[in-house]
Amino acid sequence: MLAAALAMCCVGPAFAQKALDAGGLSFRDFAVDDHGASFYRGDPTVPNGQGPGSAQVLEIDNKNGLARIRFGSIKVDVAVPVGWMASDDAERGVSFSADKSYRLIVWRVDFAFEGVKDAEQYAATKGGVIKSRYPSVESQARKLNDGSFLIAYENVPPGQGDRERRTVFDNVIADPANAKAGVLMTLGVPASQEDRGLKLMALLRSNLKIEW
Asked: What span, in angstroms and rounded, lies between the C-alpha atoms of 107 and 76?
């Protein structure tokens, strides 16, 4: 099934890699120097008392341009660029850039609930599901050297507030002790910044810590 997904389209030459590679970029290339202040402010577009709560800040590393965040609801720690914001609700962790053009979501996945047997089948079939909803979207899935799966979706319609079409990356990580469960990390970026987005995905993945 994964072979069929791989044939769906070709998404950028960088996507052909078998491992995520930041290409020399660091979190500082995506950061805003505010010494972590953004993580202690609520989302200005959400009325006070409404929406998810703030995520737990574990560390602000100004030297390296990153903040370490704990999504307690899903027991996952991430590192994101300084200057972003982060929230946590009962089902997922969310982080985004100040202008919301870069958006990260981290979820727990029950593959049986999704109608598939494991991470590989999920990666092989999700592109088709997305295309059935948004016919313009093209996708490609690839198994990485670490055993996780990377899915890229191109030509994604813009959401509210977006100025252009989007590219979205999924990294599907199976629970090493339970093939029916896993974690999904999703990063959406402007289509014109696809290459930078994939490199940021490499930084996010290399700093991801999951409490299985």
From this structure: 9
- For 192-209, letters b (16+ CB in 10 Å) and e give ebbbbbbbbbbbbbeebe
The token pair at 179 is: 């093939």
Model confidence pLDDT, tens digit, residues 28-87? 999 999 999 999 876 655 545 445 678 999 999 999 999 999 999 999 999 999 999 999
E-only strand ranges, the chain: 53-54, 56-61, 66-71, 76-81, 85-88, 92-96, 103-110, 138-143, 149-156, 166-175, 178-190, 209-210
Query: Could you identify the residue written with the tokens 């800040």?
Result: 57
Pairing of strands 209-210, 138-143: unpaired
CATH class of 2-210: alpha beta
Task: List pLDDT tens digits, range 89-112.
Answer: 988 999 999 999 999 999 999 999
